[in-house]
Amino acid sequence: NVHLQEALVTIRLLDVLCEMTSNNGQLEHLQALPGLLETAIDTLRLTHLAGKQAVNVFTATHAMTEQEEISHPAVGFKSHLIRLIGNLCYKNKENQDKV
């Protein structure tokens, strides 16, 4: 259960970063950070591949109920990464072109 707790802490930290990129005052600074967008994209890609290559916390399962899926760490992690990528691309042509 320690792994689940670590995953949830990571998701919470990612949520904070998503909130920061939702704030127009912080957004431009975060959009300009070298490597942030690339790291988010690479992490999403690797997370997706990890779930396909072996049965692990990132493995997609269709047997989950909606409630289990919503609270599943992999679903939250991926959705936060997608939100972060979207925020970093918001009104930023250079970042949009990278994606």
UniProtKB/TrEMBL annotation:
InterPro entries: Ataxin-10/CTR86_families (IPR051374). This is ATX10 protein. GO terms for cellular component: cytosol. The gene is Atxn10. One of its GO terms (biological process) is neuron projection development. It comes from Atlantisia rogersi.
